[in-house]
């Protein structure tokens, strides 16, 4: 016969309610006790009945994770880390992709509301007003977007932009192009604000641009016409597309123009020239977002703001400004 919750409680030397909390609210159980109960449950082959537990607790033990574009290599490390972290807390994660469309994003949130205990919104395209309206139905944690009064995980892209521009100016670049992303992007706004505050920089803002390699290819002619010798791109995909577009026009990187991306995706390390970029702590953001969301589910939403540091990784796509 299949092991029951009472079998686990007896073998662990704890009350049945402690076993129940170990699976339904593990953060409320002493770490040593939780480890012992989970080990006994594993040995006995015990698996909690999710449907019965949902009826008892009112919890589905499912979380939603909505991203702007699942094909963008920025998101998979975040998704993978969030799923693993949630699984360790006995939660499942439903992943959905909006394809950069705010209307699709709203429809997905409304669809998930009755199927999950909370939703992680990663780089949302909805307006802040829409997000504030929708959170009345389900707890949210927002990643890479500042929404007043809402639990938020930010990756400090402003700090990253400053590090990138300081790197370019040390190499002698004075006219620098900033390639912004989609219209209304919070990340673009942070990059623009940080870059505009830098002294000794002749800043050229080009965009909005699609956050893809095609977006980078499409803006290459404008970059050349701008006279910029250094470029900070919205993300690595835009930077990689831009480098290809520059080469097609006989412009060398970094010989003629230096290029910096943002994200530190794998393809940026493999392309030639290897991409100088701002590394974003995506896996850490995924784990912390899950913790913050479960805290919101258990205790109610609190306006917690966690900002994670970014760092510059210097590779081959930047060099001294041409004389």
TrEMBL record:
Domain HTH lacI-type: from-to ranges: 3-57
GO molecular function: DNA-binding transcription factor activity; transcription cis-regulatory region binding
Keywords of this entry: DNA-binding, Repressor, Transcription, Transcription regulation
InterPro entries: HTH_LacI (IPR000843), LacI/GalR-like_sensor (IPR046335), Lambda_DNA-bd_dom_sf (IPR010982), Peripla_BP_I (IPR028082)
Family matches, as Pfam families: LacI, Peripla_BP_3
Designated name of the protein: Periplasmic binding protein/LacI transcriptional regulator
Classification lineage: Bacteria, Bacillati, Actinomycetota, Actinomycetes, Streptosporangiales
